[in-house]
């Protein structure tokens, strides 16, 4: 049992707060990274959209630093890799076509240049890359990180080979991840995706945390949790970081594409796919809505203790430029 689980076990339940810090609690540092920009039309994402409005939004990524015992340098992780700086590196014609629907797209500065500008070399200074999921605007250029282990949600390797609902094989950038560097998290308990799980699985275990039903204590010290966040695409994960005794940062990836969905001002839009049926930006809409409710409950239960940011949050990005690397959020 992890320190954080032990500290918070008595509070588990529908309104349980995040656990108090352990006596020897470890904290992480976090900094935002540039991952490029793409343009999202409201008519594909939020209820009651302005049909003519499209917003150019970031694909934000994050540097996380975990103190390494008896070492001068921390363990460094990058959460998401954003957009490939060279758009011609997307090999699938369907992906290239999709990119034309998200113009303008700006792919510089990217994660690599952001790290280099802050004095880090991605080819040797990054130990892990956690991918929230494998959509084109989050996978970046994995070849920039030859020494890193890639952590992905359960089922990710399956859909890289077989496709997934709302993300057919013709849009999968097959071979985009270096298989010998990939560690896939184990199946989520009671999941209907267990048939997609990789044969070689991580030895991490899912457990409840506050109001979140399934989370992995990545370092075993309660400082970095990988959160199962189903709905958007199989294998989609979020991250919850403990940055101080009474402060956490929730990285929401693509649990929603507009911050107003999490604040309750908007909902996820269902729209006609052109063939007489409804679709949304999520593969499994009911699960996506449940994930959003869990994140909302986490924020409501813990109040100002949780700062949250989703990948395409242009408002957070524009108001927090001073918290991008080499500066830190916490």
TrEMBL record:
Q: Which residues form the Metallo-beta-lactamase domain?
A: 58-312
Q: Biased composition, Polar residues: where in the chain?
A: 1-17
Q: Which cofactor does it need?
A: Zn(2+)
Instruction: Quote any Pfam family the record assigns.
Output: Lactamase_B
A molecular function annotated in GO for this UniProt entry is:
hydrolase activity
List the Gene3D superfamilies: Ribonuclease Z/Hydroxyacylglutathione hydrolase-like (3.60.15.10)
Leader peptide range in chain numbering: none
Q: Does the keyword Hydrolase apply?
A: yes
Region spans: Disordered: 1-21
Q: Keywords assigned by UniProt? A: Hydrolase, Metal-binding, Zinc
The entry's family comment says: Belongs to the metallo-beta-lactamase superfamily.
- Listed name of the protein: Beta-lactamase-like protein
Name the species this protein comes from.
Exophiala viscosa
Origin organism lineage: Eukaryota, Fungi, Dikarya, Ascomycota, Pezizomycotina
């Amino acid at each position: 049992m992890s320190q954080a689980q032990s500290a918070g076990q008595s509070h588990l339940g529908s309104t349980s707060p995040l656990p108090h810090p352990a006596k020897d609690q470890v904290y992480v540092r976090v900094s935002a990274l540039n991952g490029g920009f793409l343009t999202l039309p409201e008519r594909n994402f939020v209820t009651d959209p302005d049909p003519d409005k499209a917003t150019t939004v970031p694909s934000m990524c994050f540097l996380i630093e975990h103190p390494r015992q008896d070492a001068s340098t921390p363990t460094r992780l990058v959460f998401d890799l954003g957009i490939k700086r060279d758009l011609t590196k997307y090999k699938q014609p369907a992906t290239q076509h999709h990119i034309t629907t998200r113009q303008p797209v700006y792919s510089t500065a990217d994660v690599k240049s952001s790290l280099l500008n802050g004095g880090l070399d991605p080819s040797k200074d990054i130990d892990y890359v956690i991918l929230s999921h494998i959509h084109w605007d989050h996978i970046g250029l994995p070849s920039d990180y030859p020494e890193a282990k890639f952590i992905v949600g359960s089922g990710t390797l399956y859909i890289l080979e077989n496709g997934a609902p709302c993300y057919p094989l013709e849009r999968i950038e097959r071979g985009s991840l270096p298989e010998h560097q990939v560690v896939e998290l184990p199946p989520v308990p009671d999941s209907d995706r267990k048939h997609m799980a990789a044969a070689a699985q991580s030895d991490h275990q899912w457990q409840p945390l506050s109001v979140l039903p399934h989370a992995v204590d990545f370092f075993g010290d309660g400082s970095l949790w990988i959160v199962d966040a189903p709905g958007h695409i199989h294998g989609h994960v979020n991250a919850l970081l403990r940055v101080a005794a009474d402060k956490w940062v929730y990285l929401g990836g693509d649990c929603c594409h507009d911050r107003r969905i999490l604040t309750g001002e908007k909902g996820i839009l269902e729209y006609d796919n052109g063939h007489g049926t409804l679709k949304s930006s999520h593969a499994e809409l009911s699960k996506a809505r449940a994930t959003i409710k869990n994140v909302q409950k986490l924020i409501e239960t813990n109040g100002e203790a949780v700062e949250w940011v989703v990948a395409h949050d242009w408002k957070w990005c524009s108001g927090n430029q001073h918290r991008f690397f080499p500066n830190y959020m916490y």
